[in-house]
Each structure stands twice: as C-alpha cells, then as structure tokens.
Amino acid sequence: GPLSERPLMEVRLGELHTWISTRDFSPQGLLGTAQKAWNSYFAKYINVKKGGPAGISMLLTGYCLLSYSWNYQHFKRYRWRKYH
C-alpha cells in the first residue's frame, strides 16, 4: 500500500524520512495516535478471552518506572544540596 498507510515496523530505513513527513503532528493527530496505541494495547493484553496478569503488570511496571524517573532528578538534586 501507500507509504503513508504503512505501520512503522513495515517502513524501510531509507523511507523513514518520507514516512515521518506524512505523519500528522497537530494536537488532534497526536491525540488520535495515542488513542490508537492505547486501543491496540488494550485489545492485545487486557481485553482477551484467556488473559493473565501480563497486561496489567506491564502497565503497572511502566507506571513505576516512569514515576521513579520523574522523582530521581528531584532526589539527586536534594542529595547534592544536602552534602555540598
């Protein structure tokens, strides 16, 4: 199909620049992309007939890592001021 309709994993490295230029980077386009990614994740890992804890645990692990990374800089600055 056309390059603009191909998913990222099907785009060759030489076509990457052209593929990126066809993307919609407006707020509405980015919101639509995020919604499509969430729906895909939900359908694959959460809303399945024989599901397990994998989908929920991946979501919680991602949240914990993101939360830690947000707070790590704060802790690092606090320690620097406290000891120097």
UniProtKB/TrEMBL annotation:
The chain crosses the membrane at residues 54-72. The keyword Transport applies. It comes from the Eukaryota. It is found in: Mitochondrion membrane. The gene is Atp5j2_1. One of its GO terms (biological process) is proton motive force-driven mitochondrial ATP synthesis. This is ATPK synthase. GO terms for cellular component: mitochondrial membrane; proton-transporting ATP synthase complex. Keywords: ATP synthesis, CF(0), Hydrogen ion transport, Ion transport, Membrane, Mitochondrion, Transmembrane, Transmembrane helix, Transport. GO terms for molecular function: proton-transporting ATP synthase activity, rotational mechanism.
